[in-house]
Write a structure and sequence with these properties.
Number of strands: 0
Structural class: mainly alpha
Number of helices: 4
Pfam family, one: DUF6952
Strand content: under 5%
Mean pLDDT: 96
Number of domains: 1
Length: 80
């Protein structure tokens, strides 16, 4: 998971574009948007993170940095 790649997705694409990219990656197709990542797994991780962050920002009015921090804390808890 690379924070700059997630930030780029959040800043440049809509929720709809990100969800379409998620579907494309899951179906082993090339997404219509540029998604950084060494493989499909990392690309999917970046897209899912961006979707979660955008939803948090839109639903709760959370600033990007706070939403990103919340997401990374959530990930840390899930892997520990």
């Amino acid at each position: 998971m690379k924070i700059p790649a997630i930030k780029k997705l959040v800043e440049n694409y809509s929720l709809e574009q990100l969800m379409a990219a998620e579907a494309a990656i899951v179906e082993e197709q090339q997404p219509a948007i540029e998604v950084e990542g060494e493989d499909e797994g990392e690309q999917l991780t970046h897209v899912l993170a961006a979707v979660w962050i955008l939803n948090e920002m839109e639903d709760n009015g959370t600033e990007f940095k706070a939403a990103l921090r919340m997401y990374t804390q959530k990930v840390r808890v899930s892997i520990s």
